[in-house]
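Q: Structure for this?
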Amino acid sequence: DTGVSQDPRHKITKRGQNVTFRCDPISEHNRLYWYRQTLGQGPEFLTYFQNEAQLEKSRLLSDRFSAERPKGSFSTLEIQRTEQGDSAMYLCASSLDVFTTYGYTFGSGTRLTVV
Amino acid sequence: QKEVEQNSGPLSVPEGAIASLNCTYSDRGSQSFFWYRQYSGKSPELIMFIYSNGDKEDGRFTAQLNKASQYVSLLIRDSQPSDSATYLCAVEETNRDDKIIFGKGTRLHILP
């Protein structure tokens, strides 16, 4: 499978617990994005990496959220002290530098439910 | 606040008819525009992109762009039940070749 891979597909956690999600982009894509999508809404930008450098973080990303992309390959998104409002689909996408022609390729997403 | 506006729907269209989906955006300097299709419970899938004023056709899909009116549309000809999905309009931020903003999407329902 040469697409964007996300793990796990589903995560149910209790409020206050920490969770970590993983994204493996398409191998030749140097850009990696995290978006969050809640029911009835479009994807909202969270953060973005060019290779291993995190170039932008949305103000939606509170201090409880952290993302890494060591060595410019896979990325992890960690949420500490989860809250019910964190329940959403977390989408990872990757692209080439010329994304404006090809857009993003999304992974299948990780659906988080905080109970 | 840069915005991408879409009617949330649902838009119901008889099978075989033309479905017309519309999108307006606030960022006047945006240059690239995308349409994604998202089936329920699935992730978005890119179906069209356009960056020049006018029409762009790909099979049963036609994207239309009018930068002066800040308006993008997607036409689906010969609509099929399998076209039933949410269609997300996405717009590149001005002077950013690395970030796009999504609308909330329009739910399309094709009536058999």
